[in-house]
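S.,

Sequence below, as promised.
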Amino acid sequence: MAITTAILLPGLDGTGDLFGPFIAAAPQGISTIVVDYPTSEASIVVLEQRARDKLTNRCIVIAESFSGPIGVRVATDDRVQALILCNSFISSPILPALRHLVFAPLFAIPIPEFAFRYFLLGQQAHPVLVENAQYALRRLPASVVAQRIRQVFQTNEQNAVRSLRKPVLYLRGLSDNVVAERSWRELQRIRPDAQIVNIRGPHMLFQVSPVECWRAIVKFLEASAAG
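The prediction came back faster than expected:
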């Protein structure tokens, strides 16, 4: 496989700190560049520009969860060869009207370990991984978390995905308790050519099942190049 640069867009925490296991498992021939979002910023436009600034020639964009809509926007750049979404969405995975129920004080309350395990990491996750995830999210001001979630409720990149003339891969965690099935089915409906790969694991697939994710990505890239 030719040398490829993968631009990694993080989940809601936006720090990129949690990509450690995924980067460590990267196969030969793939270099990684992590995009870290400003912890004081929630604007999708600003975060998109942050990601664009990291693009290189003939790169691929790998967007995790929250960053899916940003990944779609960034993938329109001519330098991007392919888009990979992981447990993500192209339009609001929840009823948009619910954004009015998102209040910053709710996110000032520390999320307990059992909630991280159930929704994000799975029951078998190593305690260190759980602790790292908790710390990464605590770095964000509650007001920024709330604003980012409100923007998730308002996002709609259906037209952008439909017009994107590049191969698309969706990695789906079979035990994802955050993003519902309808999100990847929506992508499949709009882009019938998109590949959907099921991987055993929770919402945070890159942290829990990095080897399996890379295996699917490499196979996808090789098939795309051959096609």
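The domain at 4-226 is CATH 3.40.50.1820 (Rossmann fold).

Coffee later?
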